[in-house]
Amino acid sequence: MIEQKARPGLSLPRPWLVCVAGILCCVSSGMAAEVRLRQQAHDPYGYPRPGAGQTDVPLRTSFYFELGAGEKASADRVLPESVAVEMRAEGQDAVVILSPGQTFAPGYTGRLFPRQAGGGNVRLAIYIESETPLAPETTYELRVTARSDEGGELPPAKGTWTFTTETATARRALSFDLDMARPPIEWHGAFFSGFCKPSFCNSLANLVPTYERMDEVHQRWPKAWSLQRDFWLTGMEYKPEFLAGGLPGVVRERETRRIRAMSDHADGILLHVEDFFGHEQYGIASDSPVSADYHPGDEVLIADGAHDARAKVLVADDAARTVLVSAFAAPMEGWQIDYVAPLPEKEDPNAPGLWPPGGCFLRKFRPVGTPCYYWGRVHAEWDLAHRRFGRRLMPNFADAPGDLAIDGRNWTTAKDYAQLHEVVRVMTDHLIERYRDACLDFVWGVFNEPDLGGLFWRTDWDELQRFYDYTVDAILRAFEDRGYDSDRAFVGGLELGGIFGTHLRITEFLAHCSPRAEAKGALPLNAAFADGRLEGKRSKRVETLCRAHAGRGSPCDFVSVHAYNAAPMMAAKLARAKEIALELDPEYYKRLWVNSHEACPNWSPPP
Q1: CA distance 110 to 63
Q2: Three-state secondary structure call for residue 164
Q3: 95 or 115: which carries more pLDDT confidence?
Q4: Torsion of CA 456, 399, 482, 353, to 10 degrees
Q5: Closest CA to 199 of 41, 422, 385
Q6: Which stretches of 478-597 are assigned E, i.e. beta strand?
Q7: What is the pLDDT of residue 29?
Q8: Minimal CA–CA distance to 528: which of 550, 544, 543?
Q9: DSSP helix/strand/coil, 539
């Protein structure tokens, strides 16, 4: 992570953005396919490590390479017990590092393990460490031999390569010119000062030993790994899919029901409903009369995690536990009424909370329902991170939480912004109540990679700007309600994927947040300030800014651009983001921080 702030931050990135290049081999029919040494460019990660012809190799390097056999999806496999590795320094005899049978020589350790590659192929990965450093300024030759289950072999010429080590550490005199008349440049950021988990509430089960090792470093370098960004605070498993496991599920509405069946009716569609699974943990009473929650004329949302429709309530029958609604179109493949997996029978003690896997639900739409809260997973994860390990946290409001979503799914905006404002305020207030003054050092962020479109933001950027205004104002109001100066709260967002290099989609957002800038696509007014329903409920920070500029402007202390690139491109992206801000409004953005809360050149294992 790179943070352009005295409050640092870092993280890990997203696996679907990586292309792993391999060298596949073909041999003539009737012969076993030879074993091949696979290659990936060093950018900076790659294999083999050290690479063929590589220079300035660190003296304490580890060794890593991958072997493959056969065509794509071939059943042939490299035999781990057949692998042998020798290393020879120039002018010296060869030293055996790894003997057949997975036997490491004294002074060497490592492991051999399968790694799934593209096309159904399975490779054998070999990782080796040495207790003794290599000699400086020396050329070494590595020779690997191996065979496959079907008799293929790694040809000697293709399993042999050389590399040269770096020079020995030495003190050298350097000279440089320094113009003492120029003003100094002050930089208040940090590198590798935090991390991001593409998950939530998995620390107790998997990561405590790692955190303890990280904490040892933290004692000496307090900024190291001091910020934890989780993916993400407002999740809900309406439709189990990639990266959905373990999310908090903080908010549901009291009125929400599970639809257990639908049937045609002369006047519309009859919905047979029941309490949704897990309603008790939100403090929602069982078997409440449906007529108390659904009234004739109410607009409702029917959604199953993949499809949605709206209808009007005609009749609610408490005895039959049915709601008759006006007709609505069914999806071509039909509604997913049943749960897509068995219901969980008990809580995971490391990740509390019980949620249904999929299902179809009836929700209030207009008027909206009554938010109810469950904090179990938030407490489990963040009490560990903050109270035990002292980390600053990054609450990330990436989309409409829980039943607030406009179509009953994640990665979109809210069905009602005034309701969103109140829910974000309550969530922020709860965290302030629990973690007190420490929240002033947290990073309060909005969105996750909306520039990647349907992956993480399924509506347009007009709604993005509105969502930001309401969310940030609610965060700031929660601080003020607790007696804090909201100018001290650190708010911002976007968390751009930034996969298109320095062509960053950031101009319209920054122009909107500025009280003076103009740009195509930028909404001119702060949506929360313009909403009369929020009179008396807005933050003083937003009120002060917007009243001074005819309703314009939105607080933005930082923007974050993720690093799916090596250092030169990443530096250019961060610099370009700040340049765009200064071109739009040099005064307002003079102190804007430009961070990277996900920073890693490559998802290719092993880093």
Answers
A1: 9
A2: strand
A3: 95
A4: -100
A5: 385
A6: 490-496, 558-561, 593-595
A7: 37
A8: 543
A9: coil
Q: CA-to-CA distance for 34 and 155, rounded, in angstroms?
A: 8
Q: How far apart are CA 347 and CA 77, in angstroms?
A: 40
558-561 sheet: strands from edge to edge = 396-397, 443-446, 490-496, 558-561, 593-595
DSSP letter string over 50-75? SPTT--SB-TT--EEEEEEESSTT-S
| Residue 143, token pair as written in the block | 């020779």
- Token pair for 223: 């900024």
DSSP string for 202-271: -HHHHTHHHHHHHHHHHHHSTTTT-EEEES-TT---SS--TT-TT----EEETT-EEEEEEEEETTEEEE
Burial status of residue 542 (CB atoms within 10 A of its CB: 0-12, 13-18, 19 or more): buried
Q: What single-letter amino acid sits at 174?
A: L
* HSE (side-chain half, CA atoms, 13 Å) at 471: 25
Amino acid at 315: V
Q: Residue 283 carries which side chain, given as an amino acid letter?
A: G
Pairing of strands 490-496, 558-561: parallel
What is the distance between the alpha carbons of residues 83 and 123, in angstroms, rounded to a whole number? 13
Does the reported pTM lie above 0.70? yes
Say which residue the tokens 């590092």 belong to: 97
Helix (H, G, I), strand (E, B) or coil at 367: coil
> Whole-angstrom Cα distance, residue 248 to residue 355?
10
Q: How many other C-beta atoms are found inside a 10 Å radius of the C-beta of residue 15?
A: 12
pLDDT on residue 185: 82
Inform me whether the pLDDT recorded for 22 exceeds 60. no
* CB proximity list for 558: less than 8 A, separation 6 or greater: 4, 5, 443, 490, 491, 492, 493, 592, 593, 594, 595
Q: What is the pLDDT of residue 242?
A: 59
- CA 418, CA 252: separation in Å to the nearest integer? 16
- The answer to whether the Cα torsion of 341, 342, 348, 351 is positive or negative is positive
Buried b (16+ CB within 10 A) or exposed e, 363-399: bbbeebbebbbbbbbbebbbebbbeebebbbbbbbbb
Summarize the confidence of residues 83-101 as an average pLDDT: 96
The proportion of the chain whose per-residue pLDDT surpasses 70, expressed as a percent, equals 90
